[in-house]
């Protein structure tokens, strides 16, 4: 009875600790989601010009996007990614993807041209992932005409600034294993395999979970 009693106490203590960790993480996530504009403190990053490309960045909740912008984002994602989905176990499903993209927790970082037309977007969320507060990048998609101008790199850097200024512990994303260009892009930006990434063959797990930690938080913890 004595040993069982000790084990029971340890399990209860572990569960209590987990609840406290999740509660603390949820408090940080809630604060991040209560922001009116995550770009408000990053004014210098709202404009991007390089050679013949000039865009303006904005950050909005999905509910604040008009139907035209939401439809454009879905169609761009479908054009860019449907073939990748269809050639792995995920498959492409319009309804499922639209539900994901319009979830009430969704935020969008959008790049618009000088004429106001959207040319790139990232769908992201402030969330808890394995008891850790994170900014999860669901998508980053660019129109072909604005690719290879450094815009994708800038948008990922802005996501990192948004995440770390909101005290998220890391930026997390999912990358398909059979999309070598995307993998090379993220690895060039110092994203590495996350500890939560599943191990297995392509048929079972056609994706990897990549992440970049908040080095400022890590530094403060270590000191």
TrEMBL record:
Gene3D superfamilies, alphabetized: 3.40.630.30
Annotated Gene Ontology cellular component terms: cytoplasm; nucleus
Xref: PROSITE patterns: GNAT (PS51186)
Domain N-acetyltransferase: from-to ranges: 63-212
Keywords: Acyltransferase, Cytoplasm, Lipoprotein, Myristate, Nucleus, Transferase
Entry EC number(s): 2.3.1.257
Catalytic activity reported: N-terminal L-seryl-[histone H2A] + acetyl-CoA = N-terminal N(alpha)-acetyl-L-seryl-[histone H2A] + CoA + H(+); N-terminal L-seryl-[histone H4] + acetyl-CoA = N-terminal N(alpha)-acetyl-L-seryl-[histone H4] + CoA + H(+)
Database matches in Pfam families: Acetyltransf_1
Protein name per UniProt: N-alpha-acetyltransferase 40
Record organism: Gryllus longicercus
């Amino acid at each position: 009875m004595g040993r069982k009693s000790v084990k029971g106490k340890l399990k209860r203590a572990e569960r209590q600790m987990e609840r406290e960790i999740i509660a603390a993480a949820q408090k940080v996530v809630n604060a991040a989601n209560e922001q009116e504009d995550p770009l408000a403190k990053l004014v210098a990053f709202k404009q991007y010009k390089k050679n013949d490309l000039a865009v303006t960045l904005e950050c909005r909740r999905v509910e604040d996007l008009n139907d035209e912008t939401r439809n454009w984002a879905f169609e761009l994602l479908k054009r860019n990614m449907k073939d990748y989905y269809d050639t792995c176990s995920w498959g492409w499903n319009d309804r499922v993807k639209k539900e994901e993209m319009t979830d009430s927790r969704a935020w969008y970082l959008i790049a618009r041209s000088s004429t106001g037309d959207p040319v790139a977007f990232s769908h992201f969320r402030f969330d808890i992932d394995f008891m850790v507060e994170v900014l999860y990048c669901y998508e980053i998609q660019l129109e072909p005409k604005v690719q290879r101008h450094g815009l994708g790199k800038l948008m990922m850097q802005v996501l990192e600034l948004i995440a770390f200024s909101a005290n998220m512990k890391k930026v997390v994303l999912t990358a398909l294993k059979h999309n070598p260009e995307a993998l090379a892009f993220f690895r060039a930006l110092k994203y590495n395999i996350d500890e939560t990434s599943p191990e297995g063959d392509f048929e079972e797990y056609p994706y990897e979970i990549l992440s970049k930690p908040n080095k400022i938080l890590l530094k403060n913890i270590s000191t």
